[in-house]
Amino acid sequence: MKKIAIAAITATSILALSACSGGDKEVIAKTDAGDVTKGELYTNMKKTAGASVLTQLVQEKVLDKKYKVTDKEIDNKLKEYKSQLGDQYTALEEQYGKDYLKEQVKYELLTQKAAKDNIKVTDADIKEYWEGLKGKIRASHILVADKKTAEEVEKKLKKGEKFEDLAKEYSTDSSASKGGDLGWFAKDGMVAEFSKAAFKLKTGEVSDPVKSQYGYHIIKKTEERGKYEDMKKELKSEVLEQKLNDSNAVQEAVQKVMKKADIEVKDKELKDTFNTSSTNSSTSSSSNSSK
User: Fold this and answer.
1) Are 144 and 171 in contact (CB under 8 A)?
2) pLDDT tens digits, residue range 134-145?
3) pTM of the model
4) Which residues lie below 8 Å from residue 111, measured CB to CB, with a gap of 6+?
């Protein structure tokens, strides 16, 4: 998944065996050369992924005490992943089970709430972002494979159906889940046919179907850069969203919460897990594996 570390899922599942019924000598696999016990499996997994998995498990407990994540939020995020990943999501659900994926999504949402609570957006951040929008526009599109479908969508738009709803229903690219929103871009940020049509539009205007190498686009120009003071509030939300997509910034925010928690690791092999350097290392590797 986009933000679920598959390696962490696997390691956490196996490390969780230590909490299950049965002793360390419970046989996990039999071979002619000898058996593999739960204790052996746990010990080896702890050596390879113990610090990063312990970090996630402890962080989830600490964050869960401070922030609330509802079942509805978890279900909505799972639906988003299912829409984005399709068959890959189905394979993950079959392999790990929906309950376990829910736990991983809950952890992701908890870290996002901690980040929102602790990441600050300064006036300087906003002004820098605004300066970077010079020469750019914001637009949405509905991308379909053929002209017939494009004309069908066009008719529905003319009848008054919402652009965002039709994008979610028809569009074939990843922007569909966001109602077709492509964010801000410069003329050279899109293929030539798309940019030529998009930059001719007035704000709020919708184009005729535009053909490119990707299919047929129906484009709606949603915004152009205005005065700084007029855009400041809106841009603050956009800058915050960018920071929330920065795994390092999110982990720094989580660490602010963790520093206030009373954590004592009993396992001598993992006792340094929550030292600043080792924690940053383990969370960084977990974040990298989720990209």
Assistant:
1) yes
2) 999 999 999 999
3) 0.67
4) 59, 63, 250, 251, 253, 254
